[in-house]
Backbone:
């Protein structure tokens, strides 16, 4: 149990929720703290005065043993033995379900993420949308939501006409089958390098043939799509990523006209220089283009159709779009148009924006030819993980499998550890360090805890009424805060909260491990420390699983 929820309910004060109650930087001040600064506006009093008044009205009980007010903070000390006993028993009982809840029961969340482009390989820039969306998928499932993972395929546009043109001019079916997506991409790149006016006209004609249902053009397109999905599925399996729908842009071809008709019927569609737009000037935005002057649809047209389809099909309580921050304006426009169309659920649409990823040498740009394929980043991380593990423990069994778990974890954790909106500079050495804020450090902590439990060989009996010491209680408090951390991560669309939690718990466990004897302790102290180790291991596994990261038993 996280006592923050208990404290918030007992305070019963306007503007105070469990998420507002923090862990003090200095545990001597208390086990939990409520900063009263944001309450100053509500109560029109100083934080110091508010803290003092709340202290005077708070009645201590068997759970909260002491309350103090210090410089605008309300500090709480809890019954250590009671909290330890309750938390460790709860983790033992819940196991891999510790931290889960039924908060989302009866609610559906749609998550649009990864959204691979047909005929284009994954580069490192696709890492964030893929693992961020994948983690949110797991977090919402863990909280009892019905989750629909959507891969909104980029499978519409004149680029496919260019690809067919290039294939018919230079391609060979056997070579493309053998080379897969990289062979397709090479044809597309060659077209862009060598195309003249005649080839551009041919490409437009091939795209028209796709749209009009031409048999040969569509068979080629479906073949390119098949090769692409086979390629990306291998990466998704490595990264532990799941989807429930691959309905892409093309899926909405016959669903756009009803949207256009509705915009017209509500007098929202206007003509501007031959194009059809929704005027958003009154809302501080440029117009949202719905149809080009030649009648062609745009991203916004398809996104409006997709949003309406998803609401009608899934009746979501939230629809998340995990897309880079460069698309901020696009989604503001789309959400505003839905609102103007009278869709009350427009408020449930969320753009989960994230920053860009690059390597230390700046490599990422496709235009400058410095693109780095995601599969190469994964392979390099696994290779480097093997080298590090082999150096540290050459006698370790199953080093190849362990290196895969460690290397893949490093890729995912490297993208999820920082606040999602921050740009990331990916460093192989940093993400594979056994020290510092890395998945390797957390996985090594798990291996250490697992080793302790294996060596003990004893059945673990949690002693009731055991009073934990300072180092033990720091671990207990951290364990107690995991369920609220998961809820916070879902509410803020921030898996980084769970990644940082895992590092923090690992640091506290390792301090306890160094400062307190475990296997050589005696009596209740040994029993409690083994129970604490088991609980820490389980909670770390749960945290990493929500990020899509595995845990090797040994390292």
Residues:
């Amino acid at each position: 149990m996280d006592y923050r929820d208990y404290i918030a309910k007992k305070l019963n004060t306007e503007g105070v929720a469990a998420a507002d109650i923090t862990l003090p930087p200095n545990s001597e001040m208390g086990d939990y703290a409520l900063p009263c600064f944001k309450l100053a506006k509500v109560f029109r009093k100083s934080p110091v005065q508010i803290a003092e008044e709340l202290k005077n009205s708070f009645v201590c009980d068997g759970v909260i043993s002491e309350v103090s007010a210090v410089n605008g903070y309300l500090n709480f000390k809890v019954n250590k033995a009671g909290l330890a006993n309750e938390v460790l028993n709860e983790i033992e009982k819940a196991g891999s379900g510790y931290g889960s809840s039924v908060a989302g029961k009866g609610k559906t969340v749609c998550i649009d993420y990864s959204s691979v482009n047909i005929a284009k390989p994954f580069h490192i820039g696709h890492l964030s949308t893929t693992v961020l969306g994948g983690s949110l998928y797991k977090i919402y499932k863990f909280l009892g939501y019905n989750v629909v993972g959507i891969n909104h395929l980029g499978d519409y546009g004149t680029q496919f006409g260019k690809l067919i043109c290039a294939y018919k001019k230079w391609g060979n079916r056997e070579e493309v089958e053998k080379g897969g997506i990289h062979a397709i991409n090479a044809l597309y790149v060659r077209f862009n390098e060598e195309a003249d006016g005649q080839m551009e006209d041919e490409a437009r004609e091939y795209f028209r043939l796709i749209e009009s249902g031409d048999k040969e053009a569509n068979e080629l397109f479906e073949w390119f799509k098949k090769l692409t999905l086979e390629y990306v599925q291998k990466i998704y399996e490595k990264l532990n990523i799941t989807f429930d729908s691959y309905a892409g842009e093309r899926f909405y071809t016959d669903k756009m006209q009803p949207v256009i008709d509705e915009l017209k019927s509500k007098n929202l569609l206007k003509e501007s220089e031959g194009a059809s737009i929704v005027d958003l000037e009154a809302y501080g935005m440029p117009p949202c283009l719905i149809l080009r002057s030649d009648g062609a649809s745009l991203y916004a047209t398809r996104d409006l159709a997709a949003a309406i389809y998803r609401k009608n099909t899934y009746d979501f309580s939230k629809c998340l779009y995990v897309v880079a921050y460069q698309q901020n304006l696009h989604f503001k426009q789309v959400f505003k148009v839905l609102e103007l169309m009278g869709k009350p659920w427009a408020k449930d649409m969320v753009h989960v924006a994230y920053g860009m990823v690059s390597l230390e040498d700046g490599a990422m740009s496709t235009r400058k030819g410095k693109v780095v394929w995601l599969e190469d980043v994964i392979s390099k991380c696994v290779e480097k993980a093997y080298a590090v593990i082999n150096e540290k423990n050459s006698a370790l069994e199953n080093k190849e499998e362990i290196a895969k778990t460690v290397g893949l974890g490093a890729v995912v954790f490297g993208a999820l550890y920082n606040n999602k909106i921050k740009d990331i500079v990916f460093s192989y050495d940093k993400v594979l360090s056994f020290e510092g804020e890395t998945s390797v450090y957390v996985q090594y902590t798990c291996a250490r805890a697992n080793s302790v439990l294996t060596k003990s060989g004893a059945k673990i009996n949690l002693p009731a009424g055991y009073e934990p010491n300072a180092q033990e209680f720091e671990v207990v408090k951290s364990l107690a805060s995991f369920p609220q951390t998961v809820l916070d991560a879902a509410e803020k669309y921030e898996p980084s909260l769970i990644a940082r939690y895992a590092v923090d718990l690992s640091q506290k466990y390792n301090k306890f491990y160094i400062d307190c004897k475990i296997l050589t302790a005696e009596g209740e102290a040994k029993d409690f420390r083994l129970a604490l180790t088991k609980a820490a291991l389980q909670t770390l596994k749960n945290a990493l699983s929500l990020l899509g990261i595995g845990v090797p038993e040994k390292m």
Q: What stands out?
A: The longest strand covers residues 64-70. The CA atoms of residues 273 and 293 lie 7 Å apart. The radius of gyration is 27 Å.
